Amino acid sequence: MPPIAITPPAENETTTDLTTAGIKDALKKTAPSQLKSAALTDDITNLPPTPKTENGTETPLRELDASRLKCTYTTSPRPVPAAGSAEQASQRVCTDHMIQAHWTSSTGWQDPSLQPYGPLSLMPTASCLHYATECFEGMKLYRGYDGKLRLFRPELNCNRMLMSTNRIALPAFPPSELLKLIAALCATDGPKWLPRDNPGAFLYIRPTMIASDPALGVQRPNEALLFVILTCFPPMDHLPAGMNLLASHDDMCRAWPGGFGYAKVGANYGPSLLAQGEARSRGFHQILWLFGPDCAVTEAGASNFFVVWRSRAGVVQLVTAGLGDRIVLDGVTRRSVLELARGRLAAGEGYAGLERVEVVERTYTMQEVVEAAEEGRLIEAFAAGTAWFVAPVARIHFRGREFGVPMGKEGRMGEYTRVLKSWLRGIMWGVEGWEGHEWGHVVEEEE
Ligand SMILES: *Cc1c(COP(=O)(O)O)cnc(C)c1O
Predict the structure, then answer these.
(1) How do the domains of the chain map onto residue ranges?
(2) CB 3.0 to 4.6 Å from 101: which of 91, 112, 138, 300, for a disulfide?
(3) With bands split at pLDDT 50, 70 and 90, how would you rate the model's confidence at 46?
């Protein structure tokens, strides 16, 4: 066999960071307006050259532009399921309309459309059906107690969606344009599907991007489809007895350093459903995902996980896994819990009779949680995410041992959990006193 020729790296070439290089390349080709956004990349140097056409001019690829939205309204409106009905809980019912936008590597983004909700047309060779070239977001549209429709910190979801598309070689877009498209869909379907006389209700928003190339080759996609749908979704946080978690076994982990656990890509979820199904059939609500031989605590299902304990030094701490290893999702609810706790629970004397807490983001292990429980130092635990909102945890099963997590009196959730949840609830649903909070993004309704 002839020896394999290996080209030596060019003098100035860095071969260590393929992810960053790939992301820069994708941004340059799909949304150059995002290149300078400091929030997205730490280092925007050594940009690849912009692709040139045959006559030497730069290719004019079009960016996603919400102002070019074309609307086609349904002629067969769908019935709204009754609150609390099995139909509403089925998560099968979507509203009347959806958003779509197509992208190709040669033209960029085509004009987005708002159109009647319905099936997608894909070739069986479509990349997303074979290689998990799919990512998504999960948000909610809230009908407030002040009558307004609100999104909660939606710009964070749109930024995260861009990060996720970057990670799996899907095209980039200005996150503010995605937000405008989401708001347009909410303004169209919100008034009918979230009537003003039912405050406290919500719809679930699912922005999604898939690679739609009808070519089976394993390669970076040349065609993509962005779509946004609104679905009916049951409230999942009514758990008077608290959540029961089953800690993952050592034969499975959800995410690993160098992987993509920090991105909301479909590839993270399918492989976790086997364990989740097992947990459900044994009476648990979710898997508590551990990582590594030390059993570091990461997340609870598709929610971030928090514990409140008293340290051996006697300080009350709110603890959650850090984002440094990139195996935990940077949840919008997680961030908001941390920011509210730092602003309102960590300062001064504490809040309304609650002892002051120290807010800690770090790697911590199951052993530490077990010891805190055994030594009577475990105060509360909860899961936090858009779908489950803030749900208190009552019980954890860890490799053959089961231990209880304290809840509040008379089956209520613990006080730290309750206070944090009530602040978030206030902002999301425009509860009196919270209507003007900057995290609430009011959607102007079409009358
Ligand atoms: C979506 C998700 C969360 C929660 O994120 P939010 O932005 O708060 O909804 C947490 N962990 C995982 C793995 C998720 O997919």
Answers:
(1) 14-74+87-231, 243-413
(2) 112
(3) very low
Q: Name the DSSP class of 344.
A: I
What is the pTM assigned to this prediction?
0.92
Say yes or no: CB of residue 299 within 6 Å of ligand 1.
Answer: yes
Nearest C-alpha to atom 5 of ligand 1 is from which residue? 331
Share of the chain above pLDDT 90, in %: 79
Q: From the CB of 334, is ligand 1 less than 6 Å away?
A: yes
Fold classification of 243-413 (topology level): D-amino Acid Aminotransferase; Chain A, domain 2 (3.20.10)
Residue bearing the CA closest to ligand 1, atom 14 = 302
> Is the predicted pLDDT of residue 96 greater than 80, yes or no?
yes
Q: Tell me whether domains 14-74+87-231 and 243-413 share a fold.
A: no
Contact residues for 254 (Cβ-Cβ < 8 A; gap 6+): 248, 261, 268, 272, 287, 289, 291, 298, 299, 327
More confident residue, 19 or 243: 243
Q: Which atom of ligand 1 is nearest to the CA of 384?
A: 8
Asked if 351 and 339 touch (Cβ cutoff 8 Å), the reply is: no
Number of Cβ within a 10 Å radius of residue 344 = 17
Q: Is 333 in the pocket of ligand 1 (CB under 6 A)?
A: yes
Q: Is the CB of 385 under 6 A from ligand 1?
A: yes
Choose the residue to mutate in 160, 161, 297, 334 for probing ligand 1, maximizing ligand atoms within 8 Å of C-beta: 334
Q: Please report, in angstroms and rounded to a whole number, the separation of the first and last CA atoms in the chain.
A: 75
Fold of 14-74+87-231: D-amino Acid Aminotransferase; Chain A, domain 1 (3.30.470)
